[in-house]
């Protein structure tokens, strides 16, 4: 099999994986937004990123259609379910908002790596029309990762302040 054939195989699998990854991201963020009470800036940014993520899914659908493929319903369902369970895992923690922030930063960096790989595979197999769409999603993920990283000190300060005043601080 030629190098471009291998790249195409990797690209197709990567597109389906990225689609499922973005479905998983929604299943992680949506429960967080629904539970946030003391962190309005975090809530607003997560809501904005949910909208970005929905657009990223649309872009991935567009790329999949352009190459004659479709998303994997099985992968989408599995990773979405896994994301929901992961989001539930922090609910019992006394510092839920902090644990969610750490997990969000890790997940954003995972998405960055996935899009960087997809862009490389697209170029190798000649699917250059997909590159601008993937680069747009990559840039959104980079901005979100940067925002999450920069917000952690403020979220931590608010958490400590609320905890010290006897308020419910975890969300």
TrEMBL record:
InterPro entries: DUF892_YciF-like, Ferritin-like, Ferritin-like_SF, YciF. It holds the Pfam family DUF892. SUPFAM superfamilies: Ferritin-like. PANTHER family: PROTEIN YCIF. This is DUF892 family protein. It comes from Halovulum marinum.
């Amino acid at each position: 099999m030629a190098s471009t054939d291998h790249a195409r195989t990797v690209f197709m699998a990567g597109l389906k994986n990225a689609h499922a990854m973005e479905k998983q991201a929604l299943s992680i963020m949506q429960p967080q937004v629904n539970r946030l009470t003391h962190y309005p800036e975090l809530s607003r940014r997560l809501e904005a990123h949910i909208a970005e993520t929905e657009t990223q899914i649309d872009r991935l659908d567009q790329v999949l259609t352009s190459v004659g493929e479709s998303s994997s319903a099985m992968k989408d369902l599995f990773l979405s379910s896994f994301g929901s369970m992961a989001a539930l895992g922090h609910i019992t923690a006394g510092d839920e908002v902090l644990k969610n922030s750490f997990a969000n930063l890790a997940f954003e960096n995972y998405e960055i790596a996935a899009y960087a790989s997809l862009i490389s595979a697209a170029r190798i197999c000649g699917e250059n029309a997909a590159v601008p769409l993937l680069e747009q999603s990559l840039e959104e993920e980079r901005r979100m990762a940067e925002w999450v990283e920069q917000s952690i000190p403020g979220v931590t300060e608010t958490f400590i302040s609320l905890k010290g005043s006897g308020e419910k601080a975890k969300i």
